[in-house]
Amino acid sequence: MKNRIVSIALLLCLLYLVSCGSASLTNTYADNNKIKEVLNIDELFSKTPTETSDAIIRVYYTTGASNEKFGIIYLEDNLKTGKVINIQGNKKEGYFKTIQLVKSPVQENYDFFPNGKLRGRSSSYIGYLKTDGQQTVRPSFSFATGRSYVVDEKGRVILERDTDADFTILFSDLEKIALEKEGININQDAFNVNKKTKLQVSDYLKFTNYVDDENINYWEIDYQKPAEDKKLIIVGATTGKIVYKGNITPQDH
């Protein structure tokens, strides 16, 4: 695992969601009305693959120079509750844990220091499970939702961000706008949905000479309908107006 599982930059783009319960490998505790979580490293590295009628656990280890356990991929699928836990990382860079529930469109994300202390927490909208041929999958996009936190090694929250701030248009509103105005079925046609600032979409606004004094944030939808080229629309997060539609590279519009 040469690449760091999650960078702080990615973490800041993700969102916070209150945990639906503590996992067996972690201990949750309250501090200043915020939920934190500690990963039990010793217990994690003692896990072995198991399979019962209630749960399936898969564990994969990598070894270091001294042939000791160094890195891990831990997958736990609770067949009764529908909770899926994924932990990946190593003893040098730290660990990243995700929690998904079968009936929830939101994924919880936890970033841990190598000693198991919490480094950050956030949440992502990953969509509902859907049937695609003979497979059950989620949409191919995800985006930040809720609050995100970055924590230092002393357990202090050093950065907190509400990634939903100034987004009057919710994702459910966006789905209707895309379908009714452009015939885009986001869950079928979109391969990327993201939240953007005005600076991040400025090239598109300049290209269309659109002067926007109403929105400071935007939704971006990258999509491709059958037998068509990849396209993009940008929707104001306050007004719901489509401020750009066309090719993904504005110069090719």
Write the layout of secondary structure elements.
Elements (H helix, E strand, L loop, with lengths): L7 H6 L12 E6 L2 E6 L1 H4 L5 E2 L3 E9 L5 E10 L4 E8 L3 E8 L4 E7 L5 E8 L4 E3 L2 E3 L5 E2 L2 E5 L5 E6 L8 H12 L3 H4 E8 L4 H6 L9 E7 L7 E6 L5 E6 L6
Mind explaining what this structure looks like?
There is one protein chain. Helices cover 13% and strands 43% of the residues. The chain has 253 residues and is mainly beta. The chain folds into 2 domains: 8-162, no CATH class; 171-252. Strands 3, 4, 5, 6, 7, 8, 9, 12, 13 and 14 form a 10-stranded antiparallel β-sheet that branches. The two termini are 40 Å apart.
Number of helices: 5
SS-based class: mainly beta
Mean pLDDT over all positions: 85
Topology as a string of helices (H) and strands (E): HEEHEEEEEEEEEEEEHHEHEEE
* Overall form: globular
In short:
This protein has 253 residues and is mostly beta strands. It has helices spanning 8-13, 41-44, 171-182, 186-189, 202-207, and strands spanning 26-31, 34-39, 50-51, 55-63, 69-78, 83-90, 94-101, 106-112, 118-125, 130-132, 135-137, 143-144, 147-151, 157-162, 190-197, 217-223, 231-236, 242-247.
